[in-house]
Amino acid sequence: MTRTLLPHHPVSPIREEDLYAFAHLVPPSGVRLLALLGVHDGLRLLNVWPGVQIVVPKGPCNNAGGARRWAQIVAIVGAPATLKLADKLGGECLDVPTLDDLRKERRNSVIRAQFDQLTASAPHGQGLSKAAAVLELNLLHAPITWRQLEIIIDRPVLKPLQPILF
Length: 166
Fold this sequence. Notes:
The protein is mainly alpha-helical. The chain folds into two domains: about 5-25 and about 100-160, no CATH class; about 25-95, no CATH class. The protein is about 55% helix and about 5% strand. It is built from eight helices and two strands. Strands 1-2 form a two-stranded antiparallel ribbon. The longest helix is centred in the middle third of the chain and has 20 residues, at about 100-120.
């Protein structure tokens, strides 16, 4: 049996609305990348190469390795964004963050909202007990343990005082 990844799955692509909802979880390297390339192109690079460390080529034809890397970056973000990268970071190492904390908190917020809906009284919810709701969530979000779900549900949500703007 194959499963389709839910939009809030820990390895599913990050969307623009995720960046704004969980901006406090974007590390400084991600903020710099998004500021340099813009949200659309920066997000494409974050989703295609999470955790990758590359040397940004200075131009399209400096050497064979640089030309290959240039073509790869152009294929992801396009020529204008690649020129921006080369202008600001040419010859430097670029660390593309994984945004694991953002992905986990996105999943956790969905789990909390689903739990609230499952345990709310009718007509707004299903009126399930905590144990029954956790079982349903366990089946829906597998692979995840019962204990992990309880920790997610019981942990308070910490919101930043002021969101980071890109």
